[in-house]
Write a structure and sequence with these properties.
By secondary structure, the protein is an all-alpha fold. The protein has one domain. It has 7 helices and no strands. Helix 2 crosses helix 3 and helix 2 packs across helix 5.
């Protein structure tokens, strides 16, 4: 990871306006994804439900992970922290959309209510942490790429993260990790260790400034 203190106008763009705007946009996009998943879960069953849910979840995860870094263009710790800041701000923006729109529309099914002891508020503190982590790792991966090759590649980062997620999910299912199976939740959770591995892999051979 690059750690130089020099910040340019082209990279490490972490002005307050950009962070706030990025947080609101990302939080709104997350709310749309959650609403789409709820519609799919309520109207479809079986393979169609699983397939469409996987597509929406994958898109939402990719945007949460890498879109903040696309806004801050991280090259040093400044840009990485800015990406994490957008991720954190987006979780609070999502909270607003959730309270104002999603919960009054009864978006969440009994499945989610049961997980949280019939309270829709259980997931919010978890999401504050997870959303920040996802964007932080994404910004770190893009910074590592730029340090190694001179330019960050979002498609390459998505490919690496996706491959490692599939690998972690398959490994968890094959080894019968507690609660793991051949389902969307397993592979959604597999993103978390996959991003840590992706950050390590993307940093191999990176120049230390």
């Amino acid at each position: 990871m690059a750690t130089a203190a020099r910040i340019t106008s082209e990279f490490d763009t972490t002005d307050v306006r950009r962070i706030v705007r990025g947080s609101i946009i990302l939080g709104f996009a997350q709310a749309i994804c959650v609403f789409l998943v709820s519609l799919v879960n309520k109207t479809l069953t079986g393979t169609a439900d699983h397939a469409l849910t996987a597509i929406v979840v994958a898109f939402g995860a990719a945007m949460t992970i890498f879109w903040p870094g696309m806004q801050t263009r991280p090259r040093t710790i400044e840009g990485i922290a800015g990406a994490a800041g957008i991720g954190l701000g987006a979780t609070w923006a999502f909270l607003g959309f959730d309270v104002a729109l999603l919960q009054p529309l009864h978006t969440y099914t009994n499945r989610w209510a049961q997980i949280g002891g019939f309270s829709n508020w259980w997931y919010l503190p978890v999401w504050w942490m997870v959303g920040t982590y996802l964007s932080w790792m994404g910004g770190w991966m893009l910074s590592n790429q730029a340090s190694r090759t001179g330019e960050a590649s979002v498609p390459a980062a998505i490919g690496l993260a996706g491959a490692l997620t599939v690998g972690c999910g398959v490994l968890a299912a094959v080894l019968h990790f507690p609660g793991a199976g051949w389902n969307v939740p397993t592979f959604a959770i597999a993103v978390l260790p996959a991003l840590a591995l992706g950050t390590l892999v993307s940093g191999l051979g990176a120049r230390r400034l």
